[in-house]
Amino acid sequence: MTSNRRALVTGASAGIGEAFARELARRGHDLVLTARRADRLEALAKELRERHAIEAIVAPLDLARRDGPEALVAALDAQGLSIDVLVNNAGYGVTGYFDEQPWPTHAAFIQVLMTAPTELAYRLLPGMKARGYGRIVNVASLAGHVPGSAGHTLYAASKAYLIKFSQSLALEGKGTGVHTTAVCPGFTYSEFHDVTGSRELVSKMPGFMWMDAQTVARQGLDAVEAGKAVYVNGGVNRVIKGLFKLMPDGLALKMVERQGRRFRAGPHNA
Question: Distance (Å, rounded) from C-alpha 54 to C-alpha 45?
């Protein structure tokens, strides 16, 4: 057993979650890695243990399970494993118009992207405060700062929720040693767009719009250490956020509608 601080990373099997795991290990943190794909988690944990001499525990879990967060925290408590850093990264996209998807699809999405991160923070926060140290990183998105688009009905809404939730937790954590940050990347190289079936469409975006996952993770951890409640990754994304903030709501919505048609997969992309 090591004496390092321990981090829990959700959605750690690929993309931004994997990048957070790698960066945390590089900084000397022990890890608890959770996602659905146990084989990927095991391979990543083995690599990070060997490369960084840290402890890496695998906890395969589908956070769409309503009892998932409670069961995970209970298992950690039973092993005497405290969590000092929580990275709420697990997420995905659901394409198509809202009423064209069955309700269980939306319910699972809300569970994974909103309910699970909220519950994990709720269950781990008391221990962080008691120990006088904690870091909570909620992986949101630039999408949470701009109007919602058609065909991805709940995505921007869920990310906007994480931003507001993080701001409140950041204020409540002042003086306790617990920092909370909403990290808001834009287009990031990962499997996300392959899963949603929009890879071909988003590949039309110019190269300067994209960031790599490792940079997003490094900047996110630096931001939470600095006590920033919200951090938007990348200068281009910060400019976009600022422009939309200055626009009248009607104009901003029309712009999102026009751009959304170009990068939306499915029958409503005309």
Answer: 9
CB-CB contact of 8 with 85 (8 Å): yes
Pull the structure tokens for residue 15.
Answer: 């993309």
Q: 214 and 22 in contact (C-beta within 8 Å)?
A: yes
State both tokens at 14. 């690929």
Alpha helices (H) along 132-248: 155-172, 192-196, 199-202, 213-225, 235-246
Residues 95 and 260: their CA atoms lie apart, in Å, by 12
What is the four-CA torsion angle of 223, 178, 35, 44, rounded to 10 degrees?
60
- The C-alpha atoms of residue 120 and residue 268 are separated, in whole angstroms, by 36
The single-letter DSSP state of residue 146 is: S
Q: List the chain pLDDT tens, one digit each, 270 residues.
A: 456 899 999 999 999 999 999 999 999 999 999 999 999 999 999 999 999 999 999 999 999 999 999 999 999 999 999 999 999 999 999 999 999 999 999 999 999 999 999 999 999 999 999 999 999 999 999 999 999 999 999 999 999 999 999 999 999 999 999 999 999 998 876 555 444 444 455 555 656 566 899 999 999 999 999 999 999 998 888 898 999 889 898 998 888 888 766 555 544 443
Residues tagged active-site? 155
